[in-house]
Design a protein that fits this description.
The protein is mostly helical. The chain has a domain at about 20-45 and about 90-155. Helix content is about 50%, strand content about 5%. The chain has eight helices and three strands; from the N terminus they run αααβββααααα. Strands 1-2-3 form a three-stranded antiparallel sheet, with no helix packed on it. Strand 2 and strand 3 form a beta hairpin. The longest helix has 18 residues, at about 170-185. It is globular, with a radius of gyration of 18 Å. It starts with 5 loop residues before the first helix and ends with a helix. About 25% of the residues are buried. The model has no long low-confidence stretch (mean pLDDT about 90).
Length: about 190
């Protein structure tokens, strides 16, 4: 059995993310900003929010500011603090949509290219320069080897590998391609 190359491992990564996207799309699954904040909180802090300054776990939510506050050191922070989205002024819905668009485009383009800045700008309704920055941040986060904070937030469906298939093998890649093809044939 031959060893998997980096290209094949990258294909497995992107196909797995594509199959994990919500069936109804991110806009349907996360219809408002509060649901997106809650999802980022679940992904970032599965056991509950933790202060980035003192590591305290006694945290309160300040509704009027949409921020957490540590009861120990009074430090205020958001779900995006110290992440790829730190200090973003864009709505989380735009970031979620960008993640979904990048994944879908990459998989539909035979796992070769990322969506162009102009196409992403048109899809998100932002200027080209903003779309390029969004694309750069998202790809760095969700690409193989990235932190995958955004990918984990958006990719909500879990799929289990059949017992006869070894993880990160050529059989794994073939299985993902077959699933992707059967899904795209159902959609058309």
């Amino acid at each position: 059995m031959s060893k998997m190359g980096q290209r094949e491992l990258k294909h497995i990564h992107w196909l797995t993310m594509a199959l994990s996207l919500p069936e109804e799309g991110v806009a349907g699954y996360f219809p408002d900003e509060q649901s997106r904040i809650e999802r980022l909180r679940e992904v970032r802090w599965p056991q509950g929010p933790t202060c980035g300054r003192c590591r305290g776990t006694s945290i309160t939510w300040i509704e009027t500011r949409s921020r957490f506050q540590c009861r120990s050191c009074r430090h205020q922070f958001s779900v995006t603090s110290d992440t790829a989205l730190h200090r973003t002024r864009l709505p989380l819905g735009m970031w979620f949509q960008a993640v979904e668009s990048l994944i879908q485009y990459y998989v539909s383009s035979s796992l070769q290219y990322h969506i162009s800045g102009h196409a992403l700008a048109q899809e998100l309704g932002v200027q080209y320069v903003a779309a390029r920055r969004i694309r750069k941040v998202v790809v760095a986060d969700i690409d193989r080897g990235g932190r995958n904070f955004l990918g984990a937030a958006v990719c909500i469906r879990a799929s289990s590998l059949p017992p006869r298939i070894a993880a990160y093998s050529y059989d794994h890649l073939r299985w993902l391609v077959e699933l992707q093809l059967s899904g795209s044939q159902r959609d058309s």
